[in-house]
Specification:
Layout (H helix, E strand, L loop, with lengths): L3 E7 L4 H13 L3 E7 L4 H7 L5 E4 L4 E3 L7 H7 L19 E4 L2 E4 L1
Parallel strand pairs: 1-2
Antiparallel strand pairs: 1-3, 3-4, 5-6
Length: about 110
Amino acid sequence: MASVPLWLYTTAGCHLCARLEATLHALGADATLTRVEIAFDTQLSERYATRIPVLASASGAEYSLADGEEVLPEWLRAQGVEMTPPAEHDSATEPQSPALRNGRRFLR
């Protein structure tokens, strides 16, 4: 099946937009994502400024994080998006040792 087109209404520096994109990747969503910058379009800015990130499908259906992340997979399926999560990394079962950087511990 072909990748489903989706539009992501976003703006520069939107950390929630990056989070939504990461979630789409983690779900293995087979979608072609077109990012739409709202800052330079008055109508888009008025419509989405307080709601971004917003995903839109060709049918006009919209999803926002305000709808709840738990409904995203259902919304994607309703748009015809297939999901195949990336295979679990083999090292996921191996214990991770922390790395020390600038006095803080980080898992590798």
